Amino acid sequence: MRVGACQTAEILGDIDAAVDVILACAEQADVDLLLFPECFLQGYLPTPSFVRDHALALDELPVRLAEVPHTLVLGLIERSGARYFNTAVVLDRGRVLGAYRKRFLTAGESVFTPGDTAPVFECAGVRFGINICYDAQFPAAAAAVAAAGAKVLLLPAQNMMPRDRAPHWQPRHNEIRRLRIEETGMWLVSADVTGVRDDRIGLGPTCVLDPAGRVVAEVPTGTTGVAIAEIEP
């Protein structure tokens, strides 16, 4: 499986602009699977008003996503009945293959309901599962994916942080991810945002880590782009 992890500028509340970015990345990247950051479709702003105004049901996704010729793993704000979820949906030419809902929520994500399943999918003969951002701090989230037979853990993230905290956390993210790799033996692929919003900054990293914890592909800090790696079945 040839996988691409997309590091993007943050887009808040403009689904059409987000889809434009997705289609541009898909056109440029020769891959089997493309991964985008946490809540990328609508933007990550977990306030009740923003979530209510921008959430989508999985049968309301933009029809233009069917133009993506690869398997697409996309972070979004999901509405299901009266509940909201921080979700990563798996699409094949616009067809929903399934979704993962973030299990471990931060204190600032009380608007969301936590997920309770760890589905595993397959692309180009390689089984993969998903955790979302803060999930990576909890061994149980990655362990559930590994127990289902996955070889790859996809990690959409959104680490737009206050400027005084971001430099401390930038290397720490991969330190935490390597713990999950050591415990499970999986590859780990993360996609994050970059740029500045008010007093916050996104430093990533967007990268691919092999089962030894080595960075085999990475998007440079402060740039947009795609980290691409080949993962054998």
From TrEMBL:
CDD domains: nitrilase. Keywords: Hydrolase. The keyword Transcription regulation does not apply. SUPFAM superfamilies: Carbon-nitrogen hydrolase (SSF56317). Residues 1-233 form the CN hydrolase domain. InterPro entries: Aliph_Amidase/BUP (IPR050345), C-N_Hydrolase (IPR003010), C-N_Hydrolase_sf (IPR036526). GO terms for molecular function: hydrolase activity, acting on carbon-nitrogen (but not peptide) bonds, in linear amides. Pfam families: CN_hydrolase (PF00795). Gene3D superfamilies: Carbon-nitrogen hydrolase (3.60.110.10). This is CN hydrolase domain-containing protein. It comes from Paractinoplanes ferrugineus.
